[in-house]
Structures are given as C-alpha cells and as structure tokens.
Amino acid sequence: MDQFTLNLIFVGGSFLLYIAIAIWARAASTSEFYAAGRSVNPVMNGMAIAADWMSAASFISMAGLIAFVGYGNSAYLMGWTGGYVLLAMLLAPYLRKFGRFTVPEFIGDRYYSRTARLVAVASLLMISITYVIGQMTGAGVAFSRFLEVDTNTGLLIASAVVFVYAVLGGMKGITYTQVAQYIVLIIAYTIPAVFISLQLTGNPIPQLGLFSTHVDSGMPLLARLDQILVDLGFNDYTGLHDSTLNMTLFTLSLMVGTAGLPHVIVRFFTVPKVSDARRSAGWALVFIALLYTVAPAVGAMARLNILTTIYPEGTRAESLTYDARPDWMHNWEQTGLLKFEDKNGDGMIQSYNESSAEFATVAAERGWQGNEMVTFNQDILVLANPEIAQLPGWVIALIAAGGLAAALSTAAGLLLAISSAVSHDLIKRTFKPDITEKGELLAARVSMAAAIVVATWLGMNPPGFAAQTVAFAFGLAASSLFPAIMMGIFSTRMNSTGAIVGMLAGLISTSVYLFTYKGWFFIPGTNMLPDTPDNWLFGISPLAFGALGAVINFIAAYITMKMTAPVPEHIQHLVEDIRLPRGASAATGHH
C-alpha cells in the first residue's frame, strides 16, 4: 500500500472517530457546553487536560526547537512543565471551589466589577487568538505534507473537522474527543522515538537512549552530536549559548503564563468535586510526562540523523550529492518547508555555519558559497523524523495523525475559551442578563463558529514557528491573568481597582514590548526596532518579557490597592471560604 493511502486511512480514520464522539456527546445545555455538566471522570479529565495542554507547539515544534538550539531551548520543557505543576497544585482546586464556568467570570465576581470582567475578557481573547495561530500553523504543516494538499486547503479541512465536534459538542464533546486525541498523539509520538532509539543506541527507551552509547561511533550519543556540530562550525549541542538572565526570565514567563492559560484552567471546572480536580491534575501530569520526557531524546536523535544524512561519514569533508539526496528531503521540498540552493553549481549540498570565522577559510578553500540548506522549517522535524530514520510507512502515517490530533485538540479548547468569553461573559453576564438558556447556547455556537473563521484566516498568515507564536501567548497570560487570579485567591485585601490597573499595566507593557521588536501581531517587518539583543531593553528578549510584565502587574495592583477603597467585607469572607476545605458551597451558592 502506498504512503498516501496509508496517511489517508490513519488521518481519515481519526477524524471519523472525533466526529462520531462529538455526535454522541452533543451538548444539550449551557452547563454541558461550558463545563461538560461537571461530570467528567478524573482519569479521563487528566487525559483531556494533557491533550489540551500538549498542543502543536509541544508535539510538532518543541523537539524541533530543542534539536536546533540544544540545551538553551530546554527552557520550553522546564517552563511548561513547571507552570503546569504551579497551576494544578496552587490554583486549580481553589478555582473549582469557586464554582464558575470561565476565568473572566471568576475575576468579575471575585473583584465585584463588570470592568474587571471586561478586561479579563480582552486579555483572554488576545491570549487565545495568539495561541490558536500556532495550532493552525501546525495543522497546516501536517496537512501540506501528508495529505499532499497546499497549506490553505489543509487548514480548511482542519477547520471543518473542529467546527463539527466543537460547535456541536461544546466542552462535553471536546472533552471526550480530547481523550481519543491524547491516545492517538502519545502513541504517535512514542513509537517512532522507540524505533529511532533502538537504531542509534540499541536501547528501546528513548529517555535512556539519550544518555547511551551511539552504536556506529562507540561514543556517548550527545558527545557524538557535539563533535559533528563543532566540526561543522556550529555551537555544541549541550552548552548554554544564551544569557542566563534571558533563559531564567523565559522559563519563568512560561511557568506563570501556563498558570494563567484560560483554556487549561477551565478543564478543572468539568469534574464533580474539588478533590476530583486535584486527582485530574495528578493524572494529567503523568500523561504529560509520557511525552515531555521523550521530547529531548527526539530532538537530539533527529538532529544527529539529519547531520549524518547530509554528511554520511559525519565529517565536514563529506557532502551529499543533490541528485542523490534521500527521499525524505525530496518529499519535504515539495511543501516549501525545506529548500536547497546549489550556490556554487557543484551539484553537492553544503551545510555548515557560514558565520563561523574558522569555517570561512575552509569554505574559501573548497569553493563553497554559503550554507545551501536555505530553508529548514523547524516545525517539520518531528513529522519528518520517521522518514529520516527510514521507518515503516504505517509509522509515518501514525505521526501524521498524531500531529493533527495535537493541533486540533488544543485548537478546540482555545476556541471554546473564546466562545465562552463572548457568549457567557459578554452577552449573558454583561450586556443581556435576561437571555434564555437556549439563546445563550445558540450565541455560544455562533461565536464558536466565528472564532473558527478568524483562527483559520490567521493560520493562513502565520507569524512564525508554532512554538514561538505560542510563547508569545504565554507572555501575555503571565502578565495579565495570572497575577489577578493569584491575588484573587490568596489576598483578601486586593480590590477591584487594583486588579484592573494591574491587568492593564501588565498586558499593555508586554504587548508594547512584543510589538516593538516582533511587529504588529508578531509579523516580521512591522516592528519598530530591530529584533536584536543590542536593541532589547537591558538585553531582555521579547519572548522572556512576560515575567517582567507579571511583576509590573503585581506592583501596579499593590500600589493602586493602597490608594483606593478597601475590599467589601462579604468579598473578604468569600476569599477566605475559597481556601477552606469546607463551606465554599455555602459561601458561593454553588454545589
């Protein structure tokens, strides 16, 4: 059976499964649409959280970012994982006790303010729309290669599938679909990693294979990778080549941004009891770890395979004949995401660090005119990995289904967060309190459909790599919602004016910093200042600024609180009750 047919069977079969689940779990009430009727089993909710959490950025991009930078990009692993623990253990149980449907609803009620709710809605929309671009970008990358269609056509197909199961099912349909998507994506990620670890090290466990001996060279795998990269004039893989300040701030930004992500937080509202929220968090951490502990091995092994594909003997004197390039290179060139240019007309592919002073002499001696791998989109690495390692066709088809599952599961969660903010927080809680439940459900579905249209358009005009775009969303979440949620739970003194000023200060400062160096909506070429370390404020990368935005939020909120009216007494009691093991239901009127 040819590869295209296999891809179609695996991807098409998974899509049919998602749609069937959505029809079976169709939401019939606003409670089912927003919170799955608060009836989801903690283990299943843990799987759904993991699928919601492990987006296209985790599945498709993260290993690519680690592969091409090495140790420096381990910040993604540390930040995202640490942030999830922060959210699960520190915030989620208390938010579940409060008994609301959405994050803006919690902020609006906790800070007894319609304005606070509207600022939270604006923050949520900015975060979720930025985040969803990365998912649509990832879906487009997967479709363009495996279904042999152009990226825009692939996006339209993905949007149609999401439309069916998200608009029909709401949170109820999305939850059970995400359980299926988690199973698909974790199998798809792990099986190729096991095969490749066996090939390179003889160890079937990728996490151990990363620190094992490379079979062909007899050297430790990471030492062999370092050796080849240094021989080509690149930085070694295991060294830190960024500033410690930026790595620390970026990790912190990802951590607190994670704890402020609305589409992840609302997953904890779907379980029957507060204790189930804690159990869901524990199971989700297990399910997330199954992928996150494999990602560093996937990145390192894929980078080694790419280098030995171009330089078969692993020496810088070797070059690959362009006409004899492997099938995986030819296949990915068709997508435009991989491209070579024979700059010196010798029919060979030279790939080296052309900015290296040492290598400039070598290149001049050999008549090389520059690095001839002129395009390598990092988002293709995980998807191309089985082809690079020459694994069976069914494994390649499986990775296609897994990549699409990762992108679509998170996209659905984000779209639900956007839809809920519009229909519940804006229409129901702000502009039309007397709307019927049937009317609110219709408004939720219409706003979901509108959000899908906007997300599709943005996916057709992506600003960068999926993981990089997602990192911007984390910075926005870190600087706006996280401090307001944190203070809302743990401070009885934080008032509405302080929370509003803090959210605005954090959101505006971070947005301005991102737009200054990354451009409007992070589109290169529209930035006001060059995006280089020499131009950054105190050398702080735009990707790392979210942590400072959070500090600005906290400081602005505290100063404003000291200068304005104190919190009403009944709100102080409410905050105290949220943190108590008993009595929260009596205080909030929710069960």
Automatic annotation (TrEMBL):
Compartment list: Membrane
Tree of life domain: Bacteria
Main location: membrane
Residue intervals passing through the bilayer: 6-25, 46-69, 75-95, 116-133, 153-170, 182-200, 247-269, 281-302, 394-418, 439-459, 465-490, 497-516, 536-559
Entry membrane topology: Multi-pass membrane protein
PI-PLC Y-box domain boundaries: 307-337
UniProt keyword terms in alphabetical order: Cell membrane, Ion transport, Membrane, Sodium, Sodium transport, Symport, Transmembrane, Transmembrane helix, Transport
Pfam families on file: SSF
Keyword Transport: yes
InterPro entries: Na/Glc_symporter_sf, Na/solute_symporter, Na/solute_symporter_CS, Na/solute_symporter_VC_2705, PLipase_C_Pinositol-sp_Y, Sodium:Solute_Symporter
Family: Belongs to the sodium:solute symporter (SSF) (TC 2.A.21) family.
Protein name as annotated: Cation acetate symporter
